[in-house]
Amino acid sequence: MPDININCSDGQFTAYLAVPTNEATGGNGGILVIQEIFGVNKDMRAHCDRMAAMGYFALCSDLFWRQEPGIQLADQSDADWAKAFELYKGFDVNKGITDLLTSLEYLRQIDGCNGKAGTVGFCLGGLLAYKMALDSDADCNVSYYGVGIEDHLQQANGINSPTILHIAEEDSFVSKETQLDINECLAANNQITVYNYPKVDHAFARHDGVNFDPAASQIADERTMKCFSEYLK
User: Which of 39, 108, 180, 204 has the fewest CB atoms within 10 Å distance of its CB?
Assistant: First the structure.
């Protein structure tokens, strides 16, 4: 499917939109898929396509457009890793959230969407999905191995929509101590569910990635889609 253009207050960015292949099965809700540090690449598009096949409108916006529009990287080479970290370090989180809020509104207004929309993010997107739980009116939110969530735990009581965190217990970017803090601090909010996955590393759900774990990914994806089925229909 071709990329679309979305207008915002300071320009225009592209996004990948996958539309339902069987609208009757999904209830026509929307899912905002939030990119990793590798851009709106093959993996993000595959996530969108899979969700569209289940009946949802799935939208993944280019959050690096102010730095390098249309970047698509992978985790297979040192050069791509270096470029990804360069973009990550130059990324403005607040502007990214603004773009996601714009994208969420766009998603809800797509012809055929029932007006409900949730978010799901991976890595950098995992942090941003958590931030969207704090800063948006998304109907539900799902974070896969978000990095930096520990810096926003004091705000967790402000989350009032169903929110899931998938945590890799062997995450090389999130220490065991940090994981414990996340679990303990978020336990008091009954809107938040934390799932911990033993013996898997960061990005266990990145298709064809170096740390991809099919079993853990399947379990996490089933939990994610159950959440969407409950709150986006």
Answer: 180
- What residues in the chain have per-residue pLDDT under 50? none
Please write the tens of the pLDDT for every residue from 52-110: 999 999 999 999 999 999 999 999 999 999 999 999 999 999 999 999 999 999 999 99
Catalytic residue selected from 62, 80, 201, 202: 202
Q: How far apart are CA 140 and CA 230, in angstroms?
A: 10
Confirm whether 139 is a catalytic residue.
no
Residue range of the domain that includes 176: 3-231
Domains identified in the chain, total number: 1
Answering whether pTM is above 0.90, one says: yes
Q: How many CA atoms lie within 13 A of 190 on its CB side?
A: 0
Catalytic residue, candidates 75, 171, 201, 221: 171
Short-list 173, 167, 126, 117, CA closest to 146: 126
What residue type is assigned to position 214 of the chain?
Answer: P
14 near 3, Cβ under 8 Å? yes
202 is catalytic: yes
Per-residue pLDDT, 2: 76
Compute the distance between CA of residue 32 and CA of residue 154 in angstroms, rounded to an integer. Answer: 25
